[in-house]
Write a structure and sequence with these properties.
mainly alpha; 117 residues; 0% strand; 69% helix
Length: 117
């Protein structure tokens, strides 16, 4: 009798765990424009470290196509001008290109206006 109870309880626990795992959502990292701007400004002013830069350009931004284009532009700048030095991670030319990306970001319409209705 105890074996039957143990098997039933084990089955119930595993079923509950399986059900919970099936209904969990995967966590998603979603960077907003203000966060991207802050990270970009940190890189320009020499306050960003390599980890902050990797987080800034490492995640696709499918929720905001204009921001994704700027992220890809930052990746191109990294390929050409990244030094990884301290305090500035980029050459002077790279910093000026990052400033241009910053200006493009500031010129973007607010997110709610850029989405089609």
């Amino acid at each position: 009798m105890t074996i039957v109870i143990t098997v039933c309880l084990s089955f119930a626990v595993f079923a509950l765990i399986f059900w919970g795992l099936m209904h969990m959502r995967t966590p998603r990292f979603r960077m907003e424009r203000a966060q991207f701007l802050h990270g970009l400004e940190d890189a320009i002013t020499g306050q960003a470290d390599d980890n902050e830069w990797r987080v800034l350009i490492g995640y696709p931004m499918r929720h905001d196509p204009p921001l994704e284009r700027l992220r890809l532009e930052c990746q191109k700048i990294e390929e050409d001008e990244y030094t990884g030095g301290s305090p500035y991670l980029f050459t002077d030319k790279g910093l000026s290109r990052l400033r241009a990306v910053r200006e493009q970001l500031l010129a973007l319409p607010p997110e709610d206006e850029s989405k089609p209705e």
